[in-house]
Amino acid sequence: MRTVRWCVVAACVAFGAGCDSEPPLGAATGKVTFRGVPVAEGTVVFDGPDGSTYVADLEPNGTFAFQVARGVGLPPGRYAVAVRPPRPNKPGMGYVAPNMKKAEYPNIPKKYHDPKTSGLEATVQAGAATASFDFEMK
Asked: Superkingdom, according to UniProt (predicted)?
């Protein structure tokens, strides 16, 4: 019985060790500026060629950092990038207060809202510990 138990444990360890087929995440941080000034509000969107989309919020100093469920960074690959105004905070149950006004964000020109028109790209390298993608909008 003891031998069988050790065989099961050994099989589980061997099987588990070979199951991680996903490549390591690569660092994906950076800074967004508009005419040299950090963009303090908004989101950065990375669209992958496989249809995946990742979103990171901008910090007050214009920096961003991506994190996914399995860790800090993004899966490796080439991404089309967009910079968008902040997502509205909507109360639960779909109710939107009548006084919620759409704010204008002149420091995020419309062309940058869509990854197809922004002209911004980023290539994340597997296992890269540091990578900074700095995007200057004009």
From this structure: Bacteria
Q: Are 72 and 124 in contact (CB under 8 A)?
A: no
Q: What is the CA radius of gyration of the chain?
A: 21
Tens-digit pLDDT profile for residues 69-86: 999 999 999 999 999 999
124: closest CA among 69, 84, 65? 65
Residues 26, 69 contacting (CB under 8 angstroms): no
Length of the chain: 138
pTM of the predicted protein model: 0.77
Q: Are strands 132-137 and 29-34 parallel, antiparallel or unpaired?
A: parallel
DSSP state of 116: H
